[in-house]
Every structure is written in structure tokens, then in C-alpha cells.
Amino acid sequence: MKEETAMEEPERKIPRKIASLDDDELWAGFKWEETDKILSGEIKPKTLITTYHMSPSSTRYPERGPFLAREMEAVFPNSKYMTREPNEMLDSIIALARKNDCTSLILARSNSPREDIIYILNLLNNATAVFRVIDLVPREDIPNRSDPISGLYPSIQMRGFESPASVGTAKMIQALFPCVPPVRGRRSIAWFEKQKNYIFFRHSGYFKKETVEGQPPPSVPSLIKECGPRFALQFTGLHLFDAHNLDFYPVCLPDITWTTRLKPLPLR
Predict the structure, then answer these.
(1) Is residue 18 part of a domain?
(2) What's this model's pTM, rounded to 2 decimal places?
(3) What range does the domain containing 144 cover?
(4) Alpha carbons 231 and 234: distance in angstroms, whole number
């Protein structure tokens, strides 16, 4: 009988390949017990954000990937952007994320100003969702923008994720946000609304109006303002991250269909 050694690769169950992102069995091969602890507040999420590896085409826009990563840092609370060196391999990124007790890793990639992509790797179950970022309006371009209240995590609102195939997608996004008590009036709100194949994002909140010395206080004490950034996501693929071989196994291959410009969500 062959003697077992620590070097032998452990047996792993890999989800079957699925043809459609709308398949009800899309997320069937992944375990969600630890992720559910984030949603219940038992675990506080922590996210490391960096760039994807550099490709020959991306060298034409070397600043776009880091720019996209920093905008994502403003979206997902309790996250930290890290500059990735050109020769820094994925295994060292994963090791650093795990060493710092991160629950998720986001890799930002951009081949041009119209080809922005993020990979969200859930380090609790190794599910990796690929999203195309569409019509990104950065924070600096948001008119009359207001910063979120310091020290308060936003409340997250998910709408339109009713189908079994979209529940896992919603969990991947929710797992990036700390669970907060339902207190109204002070916290900003991160809106994710699914419409057909797109997920619209806006970050807004009610902020107090400034009072002018010597004048009566405003009749409406607060008004709604956008915090930014603003964009839409298109879910294009799902992978299983193989932690042993440091590779991504496709569960559902990306849909490379491009889209037209989209109308953003209204403020509310």
C-alpha cells in the first residue's frame, strides 16, 4: 500500500461546468456557512483590493487598473487598496490576504477606459465572480458630492435578486459589507439593484444642510446627496479558485457581449 504523505494533493469536489449564468444550479457547488456569518454579523468582513496581473494590452493604460481599484476601495467598507508590483505573483497576494484575516480579495483589471473588470474572490469558499464595470462615474466627477459620515458603515440595500441563480451573486456582494443595525437618518445607503443582466450601484445618504450665521435655519434640515462612485455591473462569469494549484477553474465561462450605455438609478 502506498504510504500517504503530506505532499499528496487532497481530494476536492469541483462544481460542474454550467452553460448559463441564469442556471439555478450555478452556485450549488459552493458552501456558504462561513459567508452567512458575515451576513448575520458574527464575522466582520475585511477586503484586500489590488490590481490583476499586467497584460501587454493593459500597458497602454497603466494607471487605469489602480484607478479602478481605488474607486472600488471607496465602495466596499473595511477594505484596503494595495499597490501590486509588476512581478508580484498571485500566491503572495493570497498569502498576505489570509495573513491579515481578509475574507475577500478584489482584483481590478482594465485594458482600456471602456474595459473595466473586477474579480471578487470569496476567501471563505473560493468562489470567484467576474464583473464588467460599466459607465463608471468616479467620485471626483459626481456633482454636489458628499462624503459618507466618518466611522459609520453604510447600510446595504439589495433589490431584484429573487431568482435562485442571483442569490449567490447577492451573497458575494453582501459579504463585502459589515452587518449594521437598521438605524435610519445617519448612515449612508449602498444601493445594488438588479435589472435583467445588470446590477446598478449608487451610494447616497441624507446630510444636514449648512446653516448661515444670521439667517433662519433651513425649512428642510437635510437633503439627499450622492457619495459616489456610480456604475453598473454585468456578471460575466463564475470560477472556483483552486488554492492548491493557485488557478481558477471555470464554472461558467464569461459572456463577452458588450452593452450600450445604461441609465443610472435615481437618488432615493
Answers:
(1) no
(2) 0.86
(3) 33-252
(4) 10
